[in-house]
Write a structure and sequence with these properties.
Elements lengths: L3 E3 L7 E4 L5 E8 L4 H15 L6 E11 L1 H19 L3 E9 L3 H13 L4 E6 L2
Parallel strand pairs: 3-4, 4-5, 5-6
Antiparallel strand pairs: 1-2, 2-3
Helix pairs in contact: 1-2
Length: 126
């Protein structure tokens, strides 16, 4: 299975979905023109990955900002991960936020309250 690597732009995050290591990272800003179009390959990849995930899947989310349409797409990504977790696989989501960014902390807590998957809130030093 191919890994996904998408370089960050002004409007889209840096994305790495590594099938061999089970490391998944989304970092930067997520305000694409069309969020569904941007996130669809990631959701499709997770569908395929869920057929044969590695023992430990580690997800690192380091978003500076995301728009409303991205938040729904990110939830779709998390729901795919939740399904992998429900199949007795180890999945952890590390949600990074800057210490003075209450909005990003709250966003992570909102996702955490919706999903039945281990979430770790990690405060980043500025």
């Amino acid at each position: 299975m191919e890994s996904i690597k998408i370089e960050r732009t002004r409007k889209t995050p840096d994305v790495v979905f590594n099938a061999e290591t089970g490391k998944i990272q989304i970092e930067g800003k997520s305000i694409p023109e069309n969020s569904i179009e941007f996130y669809k390959p990631l959701v499709d990849w997770l569908d395929e990955y869920s057929n044969n995930p590695v023992e430990n899947t580690e997800v690192n989310i380091k978003l500076e900002y995301f728009n409303t349409s991205s938040s729904k797409c990110i939830l779709d990504v998390f729901k795919k991960l939740e399904n992998i977790y429900k199949e007795d696989n180890n999945v952890i989501i590390n949600w990074y936020y800057e210490e003075d960014d209450e909005d990003m902390l709250e966003a992570g807590e909102d996702y955490q309250s919706i999903l039945k998957i281990p979430f770790k809130m990690i405060e980043m030093e500025e």
